[in-house]
Every structure is written in C-alpha cells, then in structure tokens.
Amino acid sequence: MSTSLTIPAEVVVHLRCGLHSDIGPVAFEIDEVSTRADRETRPGLYDESLGRLDVIRELLDMVGWTPAENPMPVEIDLDRHGPAIVSALNGLLTIARDHMGVDPAFAGAENQRTRANRTAREIEGFLASNGLPIVAPD
Description:
It is built from four helices and two strands; from the N terminus they run βααβαα. Strands 1-2 form a two-stranded antiparallel ribbon. It has helices at residues 9-34, 47-63, 78-100, 109-129; strands at residues 4-7, 74-77. The protein is globular, with a radius of gyration of 17 Å. By secondary structure, it is mainly alpha-helical. α1 (9-34) packs across α3 (78-100), α2 (47-63) packs across α3 and α3 (78-100) runs antiparallel to α4.
C-alpha cells in the first residue's frame, strides 16, 4: 500500500521550479552514459537516470509544467515520488538560502531577500511537517 501526500498549492509552485532544475543533472548523467564505449553492450547503465527522469516528468505532469494562475494542491504517491520531491525542494531551498544573503547594495536586494525568506519558510515548513529530510544550511 502506498502513502499519499498532499502538496499544498504554495509548495506546488516551489516543487515545479525545483523539478525543472533537477532535469539538467539527470540529463547530464544520461549524456555521460551515451558517450561510453560500452553503452550498447550495457544498456542497463541508463536505467537509474532514465527512471529518475521518468519520475520527474510524472511529477511535472501532475503539478503542471508551467505556472498556473491559481495553483491547486496536488496528491502524490510518497513511496514513488518522495525522493524526487525531497531532491527538488531541497535544491530550491539551498538556492533560497543563498539568495537570503544577497548584498544589500544590489538593486532589488530587499525584495529578493523577502522572497527567498518566504520560499525557505514554506519549503522547510512543508518538509518538517511531513517528516521529510531538510538539507542543512551551509
């Protein structure tokens, strides 16, 4: 039996962003395998990366590939999608924390810090309230 989890609308926005960011590293892994001399004799080398890409694509199909005017909560299968959700949200959390320390001399720094603080609070709150791991600050 799988465990379902509701992703609140405000977190769906962050999840979508993080999932898009996670496509790049997985695509890079697939590219790395595609350049190996043994790729045709060991096609299983693609399995892990393609599996992760499939899960990311499934989640993007569920939350939407593009921002919605009125985001809605999304019900997901935590057993299947949990690792991708944790990776995407923690990746974005790391970026938000970095943006919280932006130099105040830069134009728009205050707005960036405000958005980053809100993003970090929403992600940390969601992960903590669902017992999911939270990346430690640097």
